[in-house]
Amino acid sequence: MSDILLTAAQMRALERAAIDSGAVRGIDLMERAGRGAVEVALAHWPALAAAPGRAVVLCGPGNNGGDGFVVARLLHQRGWAVDVQLRGASEALPPDARANHDRWRALGEVRALAVGHVPEADLVVDALFGAGLSRDLPDDILALAAHWGDARPARIVALDAPTGLCLDSGRRRGGSLPADLTIAFHGLKPGHVLADGPTACGTVRVVGIGLTSPDDQSLARLVEGDRRVLKVAGHKYDHGHALVLSGGLGRTGAARLAARGALRVSAGLVTLGAPGAAMLECAGQVTAIMLRRCDDGPALTARLDDVRINALCLGPGLGLDARGGDLVAAALASGRPAVLDADALTILAGAGIGVPHGRCILTPHDGEFARLCPEIAARLAAPPNEGPAMSRLDAACAAAATLGAVVLLKGPDTVIAAPDGRVAVNAAVGARAAPWLATAGSGDVLAGIATGLLARGFAPFDAACQAAWLHVEAARAFGPGLIAEDLPEMLPRVFSELARAG
Questions:
Q1: What is the phi/psi pair of residue 415, to 5°?
Q2: Nearest Cα to Cα of residue 256 among 278, 225, 227
Q3: Which CATH superfamily is domain 227-501 in?
Q4: Is 475 exposed, middle or buried, given 0-12, 13-18 or 19+ CB atoms closer than 10 A?
Q5: What single-letter DSSP state applies at residue 389?
Q6: Is the pTM of this model over 0.90?
Q7: What does DSSP assign to residue 456?
Q8: Does the domain formed by 4-220 have CATH 3.40.50.10260?
Q9: How far apart are CA 348 and CA 12, in angstroms?
Q10: How far apart are CA 182 and CA 2, in angstroms?
Q11: DSSP labels for 259-305?
Q12: Is the per-residue pLDDT at 238 higher than 90?
């Protein structure tokens, strides 16, 4: 088990490599999966472990169905009454699934899948399609999902994936049978944390089956906190100087939030660059943050004669006027590491102001992403064809390759992608959910945190990953009722907890 997110094809390849090497047999992997699923389910619902109950196990036509037959046999051995239902013919099952079907048949019967009623059971096991679903659900399973409706069984455990969920994308394929508990074999898959996945899966628990993921940097990963964000000794200029560009009078608040984020993430110095008309407004609001006049593109270019300014932030409250366009163009022309957010992304989506470079981080939400990369966004929004559905991972990777910059695609399932193909997910789902982050200004703070990390010398991909992680942890540290101003002030607590954990 690891922080790696394997697609269905990558998981199959991992299993096949282990089997072909002679390290394990397929039927052994199936046994481990079924045994782990039973143990986790009974631990999740202690009342079910206290006394045998009644289970209905729904088995599909592939190896996921084979896992279901193992679960049925192991529950039966614990004294449970087990009703096993199979979709399709047993003769068509793959060899290992057929072997476990036959082992179950020595203990009990197998009925055809019953679509027209809600199972009366203490536990329903969904082993219909699992991770391998690559098309929309057939009509009989859609009918099953519709029939259950509000009368769905009280406890549903899904093996690897709730039926109807694409584990490569987290998108529902026409519908789904939602689960209360999902058992992920070996490790999490992208669909467990992306899009509809967290809602469809319920609680997700990982069961090891004796495999080891490859150490391949091209594989998607979950973002984890990195102790390198903790500040070490040095002069203030050793920790960088971030310049945050502000909008005009009455529009400086977003940039001030970004600047505060950059300062709290331990950039050595942070300067707010504002037009002359907004200087007084800013001066009354900042203390540790320095303030300099910056009216236009030439003024920014002149300001960047100071080589100690090593990271820029443009976009929060910048404005979509000529000044904003000139500043974005000057920032890109400078080649300095930069975070482009909000208005800067809208400006960038227009023509004639330059293109991002490899030291840029772009931080779009879905609407901004659609303006930046309309063709990619359209493919992401389109109904999937045969095969795995397009995911936010795919979209962010395609955008990063097209734009030549790191893309941080915001959402509860924030995806960070680099032009070289590296990709990570910062999943604010399950135990890490922080829905109160959906508040005005929180994205401005995120942009500032990323800028501060760039100033401290983090590479753009690493800065984006750690900024996303710190952003969520700061929100979790505060809790419900959060407003954007609270986020920077929670960073010291996050740093302290990270230091203690290490």
A1: -115, 135
A2: 278
A3: Ribokinase (3.40.1190.20)
A4: buried
A5: P
A6: yes
A7: T
A8: yes
A9: 40
A10: 17
A11: HHHHHHTT-SEEEEEE-GGGHHHHHTT-SSSEEEE--SHHHHHHHTT
A12: no
